Fold this sequence. Notes:
Blueprint: E1 4-9, H1 17-29, E2 37-39, H2 53-56, H3 64-76, E3 79-88, E4 91-99, E5 105-109, H4 117-120, E6 129-132, E7 135-139, H5 148-156, E8 161-166, H6 173-187, E9 190-195, E10 197-200, E11 208-211, E12 215-217, E13 223-226, E14 232-237, H7 240-250
Amino acid sequence: xxxxxxxxxxxxxxxxxxxxxxxxxxxxxxxxxxxxxxxxxxxxxxxxxxxxxxxxxxxxxxxxxxxxxxxxxxxxxxxxxxxxxxxxxxxxxxxxxxxxxxxxxxxxxxxxxxxxxxxxxxxxxxxxxxxxxxxxxxxxxxxxxxxxxxxxxxxxxxxxxxxxxxxxxxxxxxxxxxxxxxxxxxxxxxxxxxxxxxxxxxxxxxxxxxxxxxxxxxxxxxxxxxxxxxxxxxxxxxxxxxxxxxxxxxxxxxxxx
Length: 257
């Protein structure tokens, strides 16, 4: 059966993990039964501000928040991809966690930090590919979309889909859409890009408006579905025949290395 994915576009409460966990859990509970994977925006559990307050809300991937999310993934039989500020020893990362219904957790630590992130966070070193209901799936975070060599490396790794949580500025929403389509075409694969919406308005931090604009892109670069600015859930089934036929047309062979 072809997999069904949900891009769960939400507002994130910066520096408020308990509020965000409740939002994620509520959204998971409201998903249709047919959803196999739920993708949430960048920093969905913690938000981020460029000062030491972010360190105070950093999470441990082995801690109680992720125990709770593992339980909900099991109860709903839905894998989820959710991000946070992670504390790992003396380092802090912008981390995605892919959580399966069986309780397995695979982290991806953002390799290309944007702007003020680089002053507070440590970039990840490893590219990550996980086996998901959508096939071999590469994980990217937001600004990673800009780097073509990451896309090429994931083509060599033989991925069938990219999952891309983001927190894209509203003023550059067109670039988010363009890059998601480009990365689908680069490797002839599905792209599920989930954007944060709403507004960051934290005392003594720069105010930011987020684009939302979550979208699912087919392997031929056609947008199969998208959201606007408001919170919502985009649900789409990823047709394996579409992937196979488009690769036949283009003549792309994945996993060459």
